[in-house]
């Protein structure tokens, strides 16, 4: 099968060949000239008129084709800005360069990412997030805001964030940070598209929401632009169909600012701005569109704006209305986001239907209330040969695993899954266990369970000092694994579940500290023996029971090791 670049190169060669054949025909004119990979009409085509504007457009499209061919041949990438500056005399403006790139996408019938041209965004993000590539290069968004670029989707995102909050404007984004947003919501990601989002912003947001499996909320002005920007994130702009495939963000939820919020706030009358005639026209169009795509909350907000003829900007919550610069963080967002975070079932019920009667709320509570326990059994691998490259199990390690397998087999517990680290000592231990467990037991390998330093310990271990980079890369990965596996049972789960995790000492110790809400820097104070059982139970109310820690009752005293 040819690689994607070969297909693109062949099409460009066909396009140029067909153009040369057209030019070589007697009496050929530029009015008849077309760019296409096939003259029989089965391929997309672009036509050019015999005018100055038409010939300039042809030159721009040919320059873009040449650039794509060069990138494919050299296996390189370039940004839209690079394309413009490489042939600035031809394009004259960035907009014309962008248009030529879009034309090439349509002509080749591919998305822009397939022609190795990326875009940089005007957007920024900051929060509990680190991007890591295959060479351990990191981009850290925790200390300062980072610009969003399309290349971020090539990295692996590591995060303990509970949600992403999208802010309409850069000014509000910065005011939130200055007001101590991350002191109140440390486990979150803050993003701004600085107005209407571009393709790059939506693509990265969609990527993060999908990869991190966390909810996305949006906070916008209470005006026609704010509502339109929300819909642009959720459904896309409808422009540049070749480029925009897969970059809508359907999981984003509108958080506000809504007129229902303003009714309960002491907002002075002078903070309500009049809606202009053109805005009223756009609001009516918005009502029509939101009705068609079933967005009743947006319809309600737009109709309310039309009814009172007023709009309100987010600045009223950041000090503009005398509420104080921290009000938006300490009051408004704390109240709004509390209902959406995975807290008590009653909060979920109220969020679902705030106007429900008490009987209806009790019914909703029953719907959202978990009833089953989740049992998590953490197994440290057997003793291994530390000075070997493979770090395989020693003879004693295999015996430890065999004795552990006997104990698990006679418990009578129905195990639902066995998760394992991909490192040799863990997979070998898991293989021995699986020989004596039911053959249909679901088994899964997860690189997130690999060994590593999870958090800078206190006090420090002077005989073992990982680099800061290791704490960043491994620590964020292990924290993400904790977020992935440690949660209450779904309300749909009716029976208790038990899952086995065959992994490593540092991972297990960190999981225990996090599950019991001990300071994470204390993980090194715990000891976990080889092939021991650490059993945690997560109850329906969210409380955690430590049923055993490093249990080695199945091992003779002389076979207990910690190395």
UniProtKB/TrEMBL annotation:
<keyword id="KW-0378">Hydrolase</keyword>
<dbReference type="GO" id="GO:0005741">
    <property type="term" value="C:mitochondrial outer membrane"/>
</dbReference>
<keyword id="KW-0413">Isomerase</keyword>
<comment type="similarity">
    <text>Belongs to the phosphoglycerate mutase family. BPG-dependent PGAM subfamily.</text>
</comment>
<dbReference type="InterPro" id="IPR029033">
    <property type="entry name" value="His_PPase_superfam"/>
</dbReference>
<dbReference type="GO" id="GO:0006259">
    <property type="term" value="P:DNA metabolic process"/>
</dbReference>
<dbReference type="GO" id="GO:0090141">
    <property type="term" value="P:positive regulation of mitochondrial fission"/>
</dbReference>
<keyword id="KW-0479">Metal-binding</keyword>
<dbReference type="InterPro" id="IPR013078">
    <property type="entry name" value="His_Pase_superF_clade-1"/>
</dbReference>
<dbReference type="GO" id="GO:0046872">
    <property type="term" value="F:metal ion binding"/>
</dbReference>
<dbReference type="InterPro" id="IPR036078">
    <property type="entry name" value="Spo11/TopoVI_A_sf"/>
</dbReference>
<dbReference type="Pfam" id="PF21180">
    <property type="entry name" value="TOP6A-Spo11_Toprim"/>
</dbReference>
<dbReference type="GO" id="GO:0005694">
    <property type="term" value="C:chromosome"/>
</dbReference>
<feature type="domain" description="Topoisomerase 6 subunit A/Spo11 TOPRIM">
    <location>
        <begin position="163"/>
        <end position="337"/>
    </location>
</feature>
<dbReference type="InterPro" id="IPR051021">
    <property type="entry name" value="Mito_Ser/Thr_phosphatase"/>
</dbReference>
<dbReference type="GO" id="GO:0003918">
    <property type="term" value="F:DNA topoisomerase type II (double strand cut, ATP-hydrolyzing) activity"/>
</dbReference>
<dbReference type="GO" id="GO:0004722">
    <property type="term" value="F:protein serine/threonine phosphatase activity"/>
</dbReference>
<dbReference type="Pfam" id="PF00300">
    <property type="entry name" value="His_Phos_1"/>
</dbReference>
<dbReference type="InterPro" id="IPR013049">
    <property type="entry name" value="Spo11/TopoVI_A_N"/>
</dbReference>
<feature type="domain" description="Spo11/DNA topoisomerase VI subunit A N-terminal">
    <location>
        <begin position="57"/>
        <end position="115"/>
    </location>
</feature>
<keyword id="KW-0460">Magnesium</keyword>
<keyword id="KW-0472">Membrane</keyword>
<keyword id="KW-1000">Mitochondrion outer membrane</keyword>
<protein>
    <recommendedName>
        <fullName>Serine/threonine-protein phosphatase PGAM5, mitochondrial</fullName>
        <ecNumber>3.1.3.16</ecNumber>
        <ecNumber>5.6.2.2</ecNumber>
    </recommendedName>
</protein>
<dbReference type="InterPro" id="IPR002815">
    <property type="entry name" value="Spo11/TopoVI_A"/>
</dbReference>
<dbReference type="InterPro" id="IPR034136">
    <property type="entry name" value="TOPRIM_Topo6A/Spo11"/>
</dbReference>
<keyword id="KW-0238">DNA-binding</keyword>
<comment type="similarity">
    <text>Belongs to the TOP6A family.</text>
</comment>
<keyword id="KW-0496">Mitochondrion</keyword>
<feature type="active site" description="O-(5'-phospho-DNA)-tyrosine intermediate">
    <location>
        <position position="85"/>
    </location>
</feature>
<keyword id="KW-0799">Topoisomerase</keyword>
<dbReference type="Pfam" id="PF04406">
    <property type="entry name" value="TP6A_N"/>
</dbReference>
<dbReference type="InterPro" id="IPR036388">
    <property type="entry name" value="WH-like_DNA-bd_sf"/>
</dbReference>
<dbReference type="GO" id="GO:0003677">
    <property type="term" value="F:DNA binding"/>
</dbReference>
<dbReference type="GO" id="GO:0005524">
    <property type="term" value="F:ATP binding"/>
</dbReference>
């Amino acid at each position: 099968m040819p690689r994607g670049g070969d297909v693109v190169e062949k099409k460009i060669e066909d396009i140029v060949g067909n153009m040369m054949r057209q030019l070589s025909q007697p009496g050929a004119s530029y009015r008849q000239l077309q760019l296409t990979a096939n003259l029989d009409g089965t391929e997309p085509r672009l036509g050019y008129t015999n005018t100055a504007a038409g010939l300039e457009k042809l030159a721009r499209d040919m320059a873009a084709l040449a650039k794509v061919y060069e990138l494919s041949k050299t296996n390189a990438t370039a940004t839209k800005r690079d394309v413009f500056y490489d042939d600035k005399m031809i394009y004259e403006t960035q907009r014309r360069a962008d248009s030529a790139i879009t034309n090439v996408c349509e002509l080749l019938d591919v998305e822009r990412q397939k022609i190795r041209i990326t875009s940089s965004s005007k957007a920024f993000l900051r929060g509990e997030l680190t991007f890591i590539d295959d060479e351990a290069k990191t981009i850290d968004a925790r200390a300062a805001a980072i610009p969003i670029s399309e290349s971020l989707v090539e990295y692996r995102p590591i995060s303990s964030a509970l949600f992403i909050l999208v802010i309409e404007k850069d000014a509000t984004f910065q005011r939130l940070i200055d007001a101590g947003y991350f002191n109140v919501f440390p486990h979150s990601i803050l993003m701004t598209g600085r107005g209407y989002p571009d393709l790059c912003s939506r693509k990265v947001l969609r990527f993060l929401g999908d990869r991190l499996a966390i909810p996305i909320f949006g906070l916008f002005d209470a005006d026609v632009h704010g509502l339109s920007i929300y819909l642009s994130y959720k459904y896309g702009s409808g422009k540049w169909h070749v480029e925009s495939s897969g970059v809508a963000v359907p999981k984003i939820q509108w958080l506000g600012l809504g007129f229902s919020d303003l009714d309960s706030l002491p907002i002075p009358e002078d903070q309500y701005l009049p809606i202009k005639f053109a805005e009223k026209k756009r609001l009516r169009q918005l009502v029509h569109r939101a009705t068609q795509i079933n967005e009743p909350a947006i319809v309600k907000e737009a109709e309310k704006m039309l009814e009172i003829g007023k709009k309100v900007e987010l600045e009223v919550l950041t000090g503009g209305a005398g509420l104080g610069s921290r009000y938006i963080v300490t009051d408004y967002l704390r109240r709004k986001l509390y209902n959406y975070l995975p807290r008590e079932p009653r909060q979920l019920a109220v969020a679902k239907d705030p106007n429900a009667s008490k009987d209806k709320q009790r019914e909703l509570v029953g719907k959202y209330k978990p009833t089953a326990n989740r049992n998590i059994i953490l197994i440290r691998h057997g003793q291994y040969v530390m000075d070997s490259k493979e770090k395989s199990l020693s003879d004693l390690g295999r015996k430890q695993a065999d004795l552990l397998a006997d104990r698990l087999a006679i418990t009578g517990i129905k195990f639902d899954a066995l998760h394992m680290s991909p490192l040799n000592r863990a997979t070998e231990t898991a293989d021995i266990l699986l020989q004596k467990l039911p053959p249909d037991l679901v088994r899964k390998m997860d690189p997130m369970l690999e060994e590593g330093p999870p958090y800078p310990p206190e006090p420090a271990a002077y005989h073992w000092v990982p680099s800061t980079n290791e704490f960043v890369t491994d620590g964020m990965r292990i924290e993400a694994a904790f977020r992935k596996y440690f949660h209450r049972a779904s309300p749909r789960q009716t029976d208790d579940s038990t899952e086995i995790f065959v992994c490593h000492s540092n991972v297990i110790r960190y999981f225990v500290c996090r599950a019991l809400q001990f300071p994470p820097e204390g993980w090194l104070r715990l000891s976990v023996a080889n092939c021991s059982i650490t059993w945690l139970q997560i109850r329906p109310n969210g409380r955690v029971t430590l049923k055993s820690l490093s249990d080695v009752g199945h091992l003779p005293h002389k076979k207990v090791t910690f190395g």
